[in-house]
Amino acid sequence: MSTTTVHLVRHGEVHNPEKILYGRLPGYRLSERGQQMAARVGEHLAGADVTLVRASPLLRAQQTAAPIAAAHGLEVAADQRLIESGNVFEGQRMGHGSARFTDPRNWRRFVNPFRPSWGEPYAEQAARVIAAVQDARAQAEGHEAVLVLHQLPIWLTRRSAEGRPLWHHPGRRECSLCSVTSLHFDDARLRGVSYAEPAGDLAAGALDATGGKLV
Question: How much is the pTM?
Answer without folding.
Answer: 0.91
